[in-house]
Amino acid sequence: MSFLNMMKQDYHLDDNQALTLKTDLKNLETFFDENFEDTPSFFQTFYNKFEKTIAPYGFTEGDAKQAEALVASLYSQGKFRILMSYIISAFYQSGGSSEIFADTYTQMQNHH
Known about the structure:
Elements: H1 3-11, H2 15-35, H3 40-54, H4 64-76, H5 81-93, H6 102-110
Helix pairs in contact: 1-2, 2-3, 3-5, 4-5
């Protein structure tokens, strides 16, 4: 299923919302690539940027459990696999519960 169709079907976004989210996610990946630091503060900042990116689409900031299905869906999309691995790593590196994103994290480990 294409990104656009998945966002429309699973998350009830319209075309414009889905395309904006796609652009925002690509920008988030660019931010990571251009600003990476192996520090807890960077990981926290990056994960917070992810939460702010998805918040306009019905996701509550600070509720990683709610974002879990979206992260899994985007990971399965292939083109967002690297970004989702960044997001999960940032979540864990900034003190997030290892129970959140556990299934997707297992998939990440199996792909390496």
